[in-house]
Amino acid sequence: MFNSSEVLTALEKALNTSQLYMVYQPIFNLRTQHISGFEALMRWNSPQMGMISPDVFITLLEDSGNIIAIEDMVIHTPWDVATCWPDPLVLSVNISALEFCDPLLPQRVRKNLTACGLPPHRCQIEVTETSPLCDSQVAAKNMMELKAIGVKLALDDFGTGHANLNYLLKYPFDTLKIDKEFVTGIEPDTRSTKIVEGIISLAHNFGIEVLAEGVETQSELDRLLQIGCDKIQGFFISPPVLAEEIPTLLAQYNG
Ligand code: C2E
Ligand code: MG
Ligand code: MG
Ligand code: MG
């Protein structure tokens, strides 16, 4: 087994190499029954250790203070990929709460958008709540600036971790992503269903869309459609795929 400092050393060597790459998972709109965008998710294939989960390596980078090192990759590579998608499709990327405290984030985003030519309304940034937003004033200012550019904002993993109701007061989210935990096995009259229904009605009152994560079955999809959920993601539609496989998915669902 490898200890975390060995993993971190290997990871730092892997930065800017092909060991780190992006995969894309479709976001499916339940109303239109079409794919409305893709979420870019990072992968690390280490020659020594095999595939390492981003849940592990993102946390290591956050703890070592090196998370900004991947920021440029996250707001670069997938954006270039998305420029060749049909117009309304939105690209969503994950930015950890720690990165959100970087005052230069909006400037970097603006620069990269100009460089790749992707219209801002086709970009969404997901705030991933593994740690609390460290400086809420900087984070709020960053979110306002990103909104002013035209970029969309989503709150990831809603209902778990540090993301709380307070965030709906403070930050201008366009979408709430409900964590898989509440979606798995969702059935009539269960507590999960009541929680998800409650979140949907709360979000809709704020004019915020709701996306359910981790949908794996037809019956979960049917239930979510029935209770007014706007969008879903999950293995039932498709697992994350390489950029080359995106046209096949678009032909299947949007063709
Ligand atoms: P997330 O943003 O909440 O992404 C959803 C995770 O659920 C992804 O895991 C995805 O592959 C997985 N998933 C999707 N559909 C299903 C399903 O139907 N069933 C199950 N069991 N899982 C499903 P992944 O790719 O391992 O990513 C884990 C987390 O790592 C992400 O959670 C996100 O918080 C973080 N992450 C991934 N890429 C990046 C990145 O580029 N930057 C940052 N800051 N964080 C990232
Ligand atoms: Mg996400
Ligand atoms: Mg999530
Ligand atoms: Mg997550």
Automatic annotation (TrEMBL):
It comes from Citrobacter arsenatis. This is EAL domain-containing protein. Residues 4-254 form the EAL domain. SUPFAM superfamilies: EAL domain-like. Pfam families: EAL. GO terms for molecular function: cyclic-guanylate-specific phosphodiesterase activity.
